[in-house]
Amino acid sequence: MPVYEYRALDRGGKNRKGIIDADSALAARQKLRSAGVFPVEVREATAMPADQSSRAVSISPLFNRVKQGELAVATRQLSILLGAGVNLVSSLEALIEQLSNPTLKKIMAQVKESVNEGNSLAHSLSRYPKVFSNVYINMVRAGEASGSLELVLERLAEYSEHQQALRNRFKAALAYPAFMFFVGTVILFFLVTFIVPNITKIFNEMHQTLPLPTIILIGISNFLRSSWWLVLAAIGGMILLLRRFKKSKRGRYVWDELKIRVPLLGPIHGKMAIARFGRTLGSLLRSGVPLIQSLQIVRNIVNNVLIAHVIDGAIEEIQGGKGLAAPLSRSRFFPPVAKQMIAIGEKSGKLEGMLDRIGEIYEKEVETRVMALTSMLEPAMILVMGVVIGFIVVSILLPIFEMNQLVR
């Protein structure tokens, strides 16, 4: 049954927009009229192939993008409906009525249509890879195969909500330092390019030999006033070159190695990758996804080539009949505590619980380190700004002191 987008007027004359499924445009209009609204425009929202649909979602306007928080809420609502005994198609239909994001609403309408045609939910969701991740699709597939789709969807909602809460805490912790950096940069740029030239112009008119700090300050000021666009172009060029370098195989390896080894930030990136590994692998195994398939999914979301290579080695050894703990224990990227917990989980048959515990432990460690780092950033930024402003003040005052000495 096709899906139609409509624009209509209700009995009060207010505009209403939405989607509706019907056999034809005429049937859609009749269905809207029977619901008490008067259609102004009805057009078919045809389903697209996977490559086109993903592209359509990715180029949608910023405010129409599907946020992870919205997807988590929709997943939990679908889980509740299925747990109440409502069949899948009716649950999807009820879910569509509750969605407010037009992009997600259209996608779920097309998913419902695909399911109604006899396709599985996982297959229908896989046509939108920009919205539904591999983890999401494979967990849904495992839930359908085991007959416990509502439980898997509940775990997915919890997993998504937890990841979203973690991201929000990081953003909140970094918001104040980022704001301070932006404001400080603007203030310093204004001082150097507008205030300093008006003051140093007096020194130039006196034709007096200036101290070295004053000469440096005047040079920086003149350069920024005349070539500020060159600085922006250089920064933009460096960002583009860095992105191109990161896309190459060698560049990605070097970048990921640097992320782990750099002081202060390196341990945070490493522990974040381990937390993501434990949390995701535990969720997949708990949902019934086989170990090797789960590892293949996890390797693509740890966001680090070096750890992905370790997982590839683990997959090969597991296929050869060995366990998960042995190959991971030889890696320098997995902390000793994580290695021991995985080994204990395998021996006790509680690997999923141990992996969840690993994810929880290292997420808390990452959060603690981020909080400590941001608390160090604030005084460090104030100190740097104080040094720069002090240099400007000293550079301006030195010639004045020398003039006073000459007058005496």
Q: How is the topology of this model organized?
A:
Blueprint: E1 3-9, E2 15-21, H1 25-34, E3 38-44, H2 50-58, H3 68-83, H4 88-98, H5 102-116, H6 121-125, H7 134-146, H8 149-205, H9 212-247, H10 249-261, H11 265-286, H12 291-298, H13 305-319, H14 325-329, H15 336-348, H16 351-407
Antiparallel strand pairs: 1-2, 1-3
Textual characterization of the structure:
The chain is mainly alpha-helical and 408 residues long. Among the domains are: 1-46; 265-367, Type II secretion system (T2SS), domain F (Receptor-associated Protein), CATH 1.20.81. Helix content is 75%, strand content 5%. It has helices at 25-34, 50-58, 68-83, 88-98, 102-116, 121-125, 134-146, 149-205, 212-247, 249-261, 265-286, 291-298, 305-319, 325-329, 336-348, 351-407, and strands at residues 3-9, 15-21, 38-44. Strands 2-1-3 form a three-stranded antiparallel sheet. A hairpin with a 5-residue loop joins strand 1 (3-9) and strand 2 (15-21). Helix 8 packs parallel to helix 16. The longest helix is centred in the middle third of the chain and has 57 residues, at 149-205. The protein is flat. The model is unreliable at 47-63 (pLDDT under 50).
Uncertain residue ranges: 47-63
How does the overall form come out from the CA principal axes?
Answer: flat
Strand order of the largest sheet: 2-1-3
CATH superfamily of the domain at 265-367: Type II secretion system (T2SS), domain F
